[in-house]
Write a structure and sequence with these properties.
8 helices; 2 domains; single chain
């Protein structure tokens, strides 16, 4: 077992210069282009109950660059667990991981967040007559690109047949001991989801 930073650094060695030089303390024009092209971001937060990593996606840009130090992430309809938002209220630290279909490059942004439900701000991000429930305002402390090897190894964007996996309805049925979830749940899910994507 590795039990010290010294042992860990001895095992992995010194980072190469590009690994250190890629880190910016603000959103420059290059990083802005990548963030604005991304339809998907994973939001990682920490709080008293533990950690959370939540997927956020849209049919276009998912996070908006306000200025070189500020990002906006509109929060659309979901399951109302609000684990990430609860964490942010208690501990504003967060990390964003942006993915763009077809690209191996991953963009990361770290900083602090706060939740804003100002009516003018919600109206600014309205779509098809619907407003987000809130907007996560991110103060960026660092942004950088991640090595593409993980995405390449995973073949993330390659066409592949899905393995046989339990459905959402089956998992719910198991976890609820039959109270919720079945084949009908699975059949109805796509229509329910399309009805309230935003």
């Amino acid at each position: 077992m590795i039990e010290s930073i010294e042992e860990l650094e001895a095992l992995y060695g010194t980072p190469r210069a590009p690994s250190l030089l890629k880190v910016a303390d603000q959103v420059n024009a290059d990083y802005r282009a990548w963030i604005e092209a991304s339809p998907f971001v994973a939001l990682a937060t920490v709080g008293p109950e533990g950690l959370d990593c939540s997927p956020r996606g849209d049919d276009g840009q998912v996070v908006f660059v306000v200025d070189e130090n500020t990002l906006h992430l509109p929060d659309w309809t979901g399951n109302n667990r609000i684990d990430s938002l609860r964490n942010i209220l208690r501990d504003g630290r967060l990390s964003l991981m942006f993915l763009i279909p077809g690209s191996g490059t991953v963009i990361r942004a770290n900083g602090h967040g706060r939740i804003d439900a100002d009516s003018a701000l919600l109206q600014h991000y309205a779509r098809s007559g619907k407003e987000p429930r809130s907007v996560l305002v991110v103060s960026v402390e660092e942004v950088y690109f991640q090595c593409a090897r993980a995405v390449m190894r995973a073949g993330l964007w390659q066409e592949a047949a899905l393995p046989e996996l339990p459905s959402i309805g089956q998992m719910l049925k198991t976890l609820s001991k039959g109270a919720v979830g079945d084949d009908e749940y699975d059949k109805a899910w796509p229509k329910r989801a399309r009805k309230n994507l935003w």
